[in-house]
Design a protein that fits this description.
- Helix 12 links the parallel strand 13 and strand 14.
- The strands form four sheets. The chain has a six-stranded mixed sheet, sandwiched between helices. It has a five-stranded mixed sheet with strand order 14-13-15-16-17, sandwiched between helices. A four-stranded antiparallel sheet has the order 10-11-9-12, with helices on one face.
- The protein is α/β, with parallel strands linked by helices and 422 residues long.
- The two termini are 47 Å apart.
- Helix 3 crosses helix 4 and helix 11 crosses helix 16.
- The protein has three domains: 178 residues, Molybdenum Cofactor Biosythetic Enzyme, Chain A (3-Layer(aba) Sandwich); 77 residues, Alpha-Beta Plaits (2-Layer Sandwich), CATH 3.30.70.2860; 151 residues, Maf protein (Alpha-Beta Complex), CATH 3.90.950.
């Protein structure tokens, strides 16, 4: 069995949902890269008994490594180091070198806040220089140092802000204590396949067949997730099982060639960014409130190919801003394939782009009719020169679900148009 680890994410603000945990998933990925089996991620508030309970729980699970995040600040509710020290049966001692280092950091920060008491801040930050006796101190990225306490299990204490935790984690992994704790790790491989347009039941049926036909199928650890209308299949396996994974991938390709859009883990957003290199794109959106334009501009450098976008809810806006013929809207309705095509053509012309995507739909509530119920959405992708791809579909869920799913459908239609998939 591979070396095993557990993660304790501390912070009442995380426990109550005011702040979303980014550290647990990030650390989970890093452990996977190292070949360390992650047993548990736990969340607890800033209460000494609860933090200690999480540490004892993970130790009881036989993990080799415990990683904590949060609770290293100068205020009274930051108590993780003290609790870890007690848990590891170590005395809490003042590290003079750490105190001096923190003092230099705080001194530089104080220059930006001339109204703050110059004596009070260093006194408060002195608390951060208390470390378990014999621990390895990790240099602070902010003002809080991390610590590594060797033992069974070894405990790594990291700060809460991701911008501080992430670089400090790499320093922690390099320590002898952590290397010893994870010495039994197994180097796993992980592959991700992404699909669009396949229901979960269809994938489940294929995986049931794979259990019967793929030799050593049980040696693959497969996780599936439905997100934004896409299916993500993540498979982890040891190097010796590469042939088994290849057989599974072959079966998926045979059964679902049209639905598979990525076998290397790439997101459709990344693929679109590459396909749009050297091109310019414009958007025309009715029910998605500019979400597609925002998604297109999320990728680095995307501003180079996004020419502009129009959000046009009213019929008058569609006519005035995108040149959609009022008679066309009257004949077919604002939510229709002909109007979607006209919106895409209007966006092409208005922004001088060579690619355009239009979305018009009914996200609800209360906007549907018997013939066009809530969730009816029409899409059109237009390329300069006259080529276009137009679709109408019915999407499930509430307003937020329909909007999010609509952007995903639009991205995949765009991908198919740019790759000639139709």
């Amino acid at each position: 069995m591979s070396a095993r680890a557990g993660i304790v994410v501390t912070g009442t603000e995380v426990l109550t949902g005011r702040v979303q945990d980014q550290n647990g998933p990030w650390l989970a990925d890093r452990l996977l890269e190292l070949g360390v089996e992650l047993g548990h991620i736990t969340l607890c508030g800033d209460r000494p008994a609860d933090i200690e309970a999480q540490l004892r729980f993970l130790a009881g699970q036989g993990v080799d490594l415990i990683i904590t995040s949060g609770g290293l600040g100068p205020t009274a509710d930051d108590m993780t180091v003290e609790i870890v020290s007690r848990f590891c049966s170590r005395e809490l001692v003042l590290d003079a070198a750490v105190e001096a280092r923190i003092g230099e950091i705080v001194k530089g920060m104080m220059a930006r806040f001339p109204g703050v008491d110059a004596d009070a801040v260093p006194a408060a930050n002195r608390k951060q220089a208390l470390v378990p006796a014999g621990a390895v101190v990790l240099d602070p990225v902010g003002t809080a140092p991390g610590v590594v306490v060797a033992g069974s299990p070894t405990v790594v204490v990291l700060p809460g802000p991701p911008r501080e935790l992430q670089p400090m984690w790499h320093a922690a992994v390099a320590t002898d204590a952590v290397q010893t704790a994870i010495a039994g790790r197994t180097r796993y491989q992980q592959q991700t396949i992404r699909m669009f347009g396949l229901p979960e039941s269809g994938l489940a049926d294929t995986l049931r067949d794979a259990e019967k036909t793929v030799a050593d199928f049980d040696r693959l650890e497969i996780t599936t997730c439905l997100r934004r209308g896409e299916l993500e299949i993540v498979t982890r396996f040891e190097p010796r099982d590469t042939a088994t994974y290849a057989a599974l991938e072959g079966l998926l390709r045979d059964r679902h060639a049209r639905e598979i859009f990525s076998t290397d883990g790439a997101l459709v957003d990344d693929q679109i960014a590459e396909l749009l290199a050297g091109r310019s794109i414009a958007t025309a959106e009715s029910c998605t409130a500019g979400m597609l334009a925002a998604r297109l501009t999320e990728r680095a450098g995307s501003s180079a190919y996004v020419a502009g976008g129009v959000v046009a809810y009213s019929n008058a806006a569609k006519t005035e801003l995108l040149g959609v013929d009022a008679g066309l809207i009257e004949r077919h309705g604002a939510v229709s394939e002909p109007v979607a095509e006209a919106m895409a053509a209007g966006a092409l012309q208005r922004f001088g782009a060579d690619t355009a995507v239009a979305i018009t739909g009914i996200a609800g509530p209360g906007g549907g009719t018997p013939t066009k119920p809530v969730g009816t959405v029409c899409f059109s992708v237009a390329l300069a020169g006259g080529a276009s791809v137009t679709r109408a579909t019915r999407l499930p869920g509430n307003r937020s679900d329909i909007r999010e799913r609509s952007t995903t459908v639009a991205m995949h239609l765009l991908r198919r148009a740019l790759t000639g998939g139709g």
